[in-house]
Known about the structure:
Helices cover 71% and strands 0% of the residues. The radius of gyration is 35 Å and the shape is globular.
Amino acid sequence: MTTAPQNTDELYQALQENDRRPYGRARTVTAEELVDAAEQFAEPVPLVHALFELQEAYTYGSEPRKSPVVFARLLTLFDEQPDVFDERRRHTLFWRFKWVANALRVLPEIPLASLRQWLTEMRDRYEKAGLGLQPYYGQAYQLAAHIGEDTTLAYELWAGRSRTRLSDCEACEICERALYHLAAGDDERALSAWEPVLAGTESCQEEPARSVSYALLPLLRAGRADRARELHLAGYRNCRRNPSMAGEVGRHLEFCALTGNETRGLELLAENRNLFGEVDSSLDLFDFLTGVEVLLQRVELLGHGELPAAGYAGRSWTVAGLRAEVRGRADDLAARFDARNGTTAHTDRRRARLDRAPLVDALELTLRTRGLDEVTPAAPVAAPPARTAAAVPDSLPELIVRARELDVQGHPDAKACWAKLRTLVASRDYTHPDDPAVGPLAQLRADLLGDEASRAGDRNEFAEAAALQEEAAGLYDDAGLPGHAAVARACALLAAAEAPAEAPAETSAEAAAETPVEGDVAAEAKAAALGAAHASMVRLHEETAGLAPHQEARLLRLRATALGMRLQNSGNEEHVAPVLAEADLLHALATRHDLGGQISRALLIRATTHALSGDLPTAVTGIDGLLDRLRTHGPAWYLPHTLALRGRIHLALQDARTARADLAEGLRLAADWPADTVETARLHSDLAEACMHLGSPDEALRHLTRSAELQLRGGSRTDAYCAYSNAAQLCLDLGRIEDCIALLDSLLAEPDVTAGEMDDRLVAQLRLTRARALHAGEDLKVAAAELVALAAESAGWEDDPGSHAMIAAEAAVLLGESGEFGRAREAVDQALAAHARAPRYEQLSNCLRELARLQAEQQGPDGLADALALLAEAGRIADEARAAEYEARGRSLDTALAYEHGRVNAYAGEYEDALAALEKALALLGEPGAEEDHAGEWAECVRLAGAVEGIYLERPAAALPRLAAAVSRLNALGHTEETEPLTALAARLRDEE
Length: 993
């Protein structure tokens, strides 16, 4: 709080603002300051309100020790000045007797006698005030359940009584009844009792998050794993990082541990690291730590005690080390509670949780199912072994010779040989064989650099690949192998040409940001670089004598590849023939020397070139011939790639069914080879596209996530995140909101993301999708906060003002939904400023119209002026769009604007203006036809006009003919479904006449 309130009006305003803040230290500190401010005024009522706010902040901010102190002040005020407490304040005071009982119960240092004394005080106060005692008996039962004694009698005394106005809410009482049955071992009855809360029928501040956390394991035991999964995803999101719900977080960690999701459990533990230091409630901390220990115990039992784990601040922890620390602290808390209560209830409950065996072997909780072997920092994870593992020789000379033979063939197993050799050569005691068949050490080091460059290229790290190939060429020169050096230099030329274009060295960073190399300019630059690389390769080829046939074939293939990539970037028809000419040279050479693999490569280049040029039928014919050859003569490892290409061509031909068959066969054959050598990730990605075309989005989602997993294992993290981003968007489109949020939360918690090492625009896209998913999941406050933060960050994107305009516009709408129209207007102004630099007509128009509607709907006549000002801005946008000859994707911006004028004026009670605007909208829309797709919009516009005219202007005689004519028109065109709302409105108007 920057300035203390100077009068009670300012105090009340500050209290309202603080009430909108999330629970936590910032809200609590402000509440404390507001109590100090309230004490300066002579009026007791403002002080009562400030104390109520402070007690709430302590209670839900997990500072239970302070709640009773504040309540004591309130009780003293009530005793001394009862008239200060009107009916509402009196109700709040007596309600909060229960808060104090809870606060005392969760602190083991409070004697049991003091707890019972407080309950006696509560009962006496209730009786004196003439209030029903059901709330008192509810607290008595909760104390009995906590202690573990006489629970049956206490439950019956509470549950058998009628509810009163001061009883806990229905949701909380349902949870207590369910927990009673759960403690008695009756899962079925507990789940039956919980159903209204789990279904969302009953809820409150703490529910359903509390009930969900307890219901997860009973649901698993009842065989309802899918329901448990669904509730885990939604329930965890509602309690994460919240100190007052630390116990719930602990039960979610336990659920992960008992369902084979230990990796997710460690992710969630890291996300909730703050709870180790922010939970003041000893009981909540006990529940949290026990859940943490269940998880860590499971991870250690699986042999991963050395893994890093997020724990207490100030030092790094392993799973084993943190488990020992947590065990000691939780044991101490259990002993303190049991000593206070005179029972062994907490020790027994803790032991029962720790002794539970996993309930299922593996329950897929999220779209990122990872094993503990994959829990590392942002380094590539080794791919699982292929089904047909490479036979790697044990003899070093044989291994070197075998690696080179396989490399010449392009065989996938070459990578396994190079990997083993890399390890051997890196060891201190490595001794190079003195064998003429092996060659000098410089040659082997160059071979390994070439393999490393190939892997860098697979990760799109082309500059590094080029540098490695140049270094390899130098070593080949030293070894007296000019043919090898020429191939390496040709590879370096191609990699350098593939590297992204950069701004000239003399260009400043600011100027480079203002004039980025992108779009057509970037494509032209890349095409020119590839052309120059090809010319250099040709000279290199001509200048190198004594090339072996396989080396000459390799150079021809690199030449053809450079020209093929130039064609891909330029799309220039003149670039087709040169590629085919190079492919012909390669085919002729390979045929002359019987190089089977290179013959297939030449045929593949031909088919690919025809596809790039748009001659898809010829491409299919070429691919079919190649497939026949591969199936007869091999090499077999080319089949997956060739089938993938045919699948992509069939997708381009809009034959998704054949494409899926090709891609599925390619994926089946790819299983025989290491995933990183046969483009398995690309096959999954293409299959996802085919499945979407065939109306199988769930299957598409599985392929997308699998593609992302494989890319992540191969070290292509950017590509992996892009695939995951697409998967998250598909989840959102499918209505799988919690899956979407869980996936994005997992990605955004990755070390390279949190460290700011990942591309900021890609991360922004992930956050944007997450904000949209949160909005779809009705978490408006968090969604709005995320969009506002994104809008602030994107304001600095000088090279992309259009995206900033879109993000700021979305933020404005969510702020409007939250009723924060002042902040919404600020966001709109940001969007308009960015729109002036990079027009986004439709997005801005939609934003302004929706914000106007929200303001009129929420504020009525008081919001009309601001709403009309927003619509005036939308009108200016529509004028700009018309002048720019922009065509909206749906209805015209003018039509949408007229319709919104109708709604806004109707919300504000200006019905004549509303009707006139709707008449204009109908004229702009025009009557629907049999084939036109705006029948629904037209019918809705007619319905609203009929409602305004017939109901609010009280002219049903004029409205009914309008509705009847519209119904007749729609029926005649076959749009019968659209007539139902119109018919219902007409019936209502006739009934009211």
